[in-house]
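Batch job 17 of 40 flagged for manual review because the log was empty.
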Amino acid sequence: MDSNLNNNKQKASTDVLFLIAVVAVVFAATNLRSPLTAVGPVVSDIVTYFQLSNVEAGLLTAVPLFMFAALSGFVGALSTKHPIERLMVLSVILLLIGLYLRVAGTLTTLYLGTAMVGLGICVGNVVMPGFVKKQFPEHVGVMTGVYSVAMNLTAALAAGLSVQIGDLLGMGWKGSLGVWIIPALLTLLIWLLLLLNVRRNSETSKKHTVREKNNLYKISLAWNISLFMGLQSVVYYCLVAWLPVVLQSYGMQAEDAGWMLSYMQFAMIPISFVGPIIASRMVDQRPMMVVAGISFITAILLLLFFGMDYAFAACMFFGVANGLSFGMVMLFFSIRTTSSNLAMRLSGMAQSVGYLLAGFGPLLFGALFDVSQDWVYSFIFLLVIAVLLFYNGMRASAPRKI
């Protein structure tokens, strides 16, 4: 009788911890893109407020990406020595500080806060694939899909409602960016609860730490995944930073341009959920990469040759391509590795190398316009990136492991 009671209590405790872990994944995901996608629709207001050039405005997206590039490898190494839950609590605290500083009102705090936001997101980006692999080993595809959907849904809402939120609060761009302090506070509470209740299997971590001494920087598959991560991020963050501005220059209203970015995010949601689930059941993921590559190239060509006329269609293609690519790279961290430790190390490498590339994307996209006063060269730049992305994606999708 006592044995059955203890078993029931243990099962109930396990179920509660599983539920908390699912909620923690969802809440963490809400903070890893929305603070960045909220910037694009109000970047014109920020430019006017601080009298910024296009390159300086591009830094608002580029600075977080450079933080990812500089520190992701360090976070990946750190994650083998500390509980993931503790690192996620640190991630959200850093994010909260950055969100506050970003709207404090001076140019210095704007960029300092932007860097802190990048640092907080950097930690979360690196450790979450390892958390999914460790906490949900039998449901990696599904939970990767849940994680992707939560991230892209809140990113879409952040882009689409950014202008309206600022108007509603009567604070302009400061309200648009500052409101994300609220979900970050809720996320902190959830992860503190998880940290208090989840036990860390230190023995397993030690074994993995001893065993996995292979240098990922000498492995071609790790480089293919890293370059694929970076190149798809170049396209994504160029769109986040500049798509509303591009569409406004074509004659679209600011609010409508913000919603176009939001429509792209909404289009990402179903494919970012279904894609990892389907891909996790496939031995060879290259057919899915063909879909992503064709969608990227089609979207770029539509904007390049038809401007605003087919903007909605282009956003739909971008949504499919970005959603599938993002879901695939998150899945690669799990299915191309043999442990959560290695998954986090690969995540650290991929995000360090990848975001070093991605950080230059918004800057170059804006700089090409400054030079030519036309978006043609900016979109040709994206087209070249899409071709390179497809090549590395095809190699990363081949059935092999690190």
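Reviewer: the log was empty due to a logging misconfiguration, but the result itself is present. Residues 200-211 have pLDDT under 50 and may be disordered. Unflagging and moving on to job 18.
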